[in-house]
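A favour, since you know our structure tokens better than I do. What I am after is a single protein written out in full by you. Could you add the entry underneath, on a fresh line?


***
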Amino acid sequence: MQNNLSPYIYAGYQCNNNCIFCSEADEYAQNLKRKSLQEIKKEILQIRRQHDFINVMGREPTLRDDIFDILLFTTSLNFKQVGLASNGRMFCHPEFTKDILKANINQIAISLAGATAVTHDKQTRTPGSFRQTMAGIENVLKYKKPQVSHLVNLPMNKLNYKELKAELKLLTALGVQEINILNISPVSRRSRSKKIIMPMPELSTCVFNTLKDNGFLGRKNPKILLVEFPPCSLPREGRKYFFPCLEKSPNKVRVSLCRSCVYISKCDGIVNSYLDLYGSLNFRLD
């Protein structure tokens, strides 16, 4: 059995979006063979031996015709948490949303790439995707039980970071109670996301100031996490909001600052292809 197995199961090998920021469209994933239901069940059992939570993900797992079987099998194993990550478009269909929730999963995470159709659809490169994703978010909120977590992921980049305030207000008005703000990095040297990646310290400062200036820091509703923003990229007062990604990446490396960082046990370092773009000189711990 693999050591330190991440609690993520890659189930989706097709997608109804074509996101410019998608790490799962890089060359390492382009030629992966689609897993059968039995292969996925075997992986889920391996994860269960090491973890009491799991997240079903991929390019778009909701497009699998056996997604209900996957979720029902997973929830039968008594994980404390079973999550599903999605672009949310299939949830625009009320009956589909209800069926997914019948599998008794306890978290649905949906990605939103902007506060407007213009910004979101430019990144997904799929006209109409914003409308369907927003309808999906609303349907999950409408049909889920109170104990089911509904998380919205906001992948930040050059094309949308100026809309963060508007996104937060939009989602809060809908009743979304959990939001992850994601720093995206190119996962390979040929990643198409390199075109829109911002220098981490610049993006981190903009994100933190947006949260601080608009009263979102420290709030319980919505609960906001800064995911994949290394502490050395954040202002000093923002470092306590750093949240490490649990999906382990073999492409992360240590930089010189890591040796003196108090967060070293929680942070795995910086993606090496990001360092190829911007280097590490602007990271700070003072």
Remarks:
- The radius of gyration is 18 Å.
- The longest strand covers residues 149-156.
- The chain has one domain: 8-246.
- The first helix runs from residue 27 to 30.
